[in-house]
Design goal:
The chain is of the alpha+beta class and 124 residues long. 45% of the residues lie in helices and 11% in strands. The two termini are 31 Å apart.
Length: 124
């Protein structure tokens, strides 16, 4: 499902890049914000490719914004409540809290943009 949505977004970007008039001057370039960093796909590999394609078309001025890493998921409480399992769970919780705190301190705040937004300016 996520892969289908990503492929649809990628095809939409290509369609827009190809469909725009090629006579646009550099002053007429559309500003495009590409937000990456999430969404279970190879964004580290695909973002530079998208930027190159869009900027080489001469129609876009692309800015990339990478969303901060999200905190890891909390460990699940063990189903069996023996002492050894509970000790491991307590240690996992402490490690998770430290890791989450570190990530929150590094980020400026919660950001969760996961969709490509095309310019609102009339293109055709």
């Amino acid at each position: 499902m996520i892969r289908k949505n990503f492929i649809k977004s990628l095809l939409l970007v290509f369609a827009v890049a190809i469909g725009l008039p090629s006579f646009a001057s550099s002053a007429d370039k559309l500003k495009l914000l590409l937000v990456d960093g999430q969404n279970n796909h190879a964004w580290k590999e695909t973002s530079p490719v998208l930027v190159t394609i869009l900027e080489d078309s001469g129609r876009f001025d692309v800015t990339v914004s990478t969303s901060p890493a999200s905190p890891p998921r909390a460990p699940r409480k063990p189903k069996k409540g023996d002492d050894e399992a509970m000790k491991k769970f307590a240690a996992d919780i402490k490690a998770w809290e430290l890791q989450s705190k570190k990530i929150k301190e590094q980020s400026a705040g919660p950001v969760s943009y996961t969709h490509l937004t095309l310019p609102t300016k009339r293109i055709v």
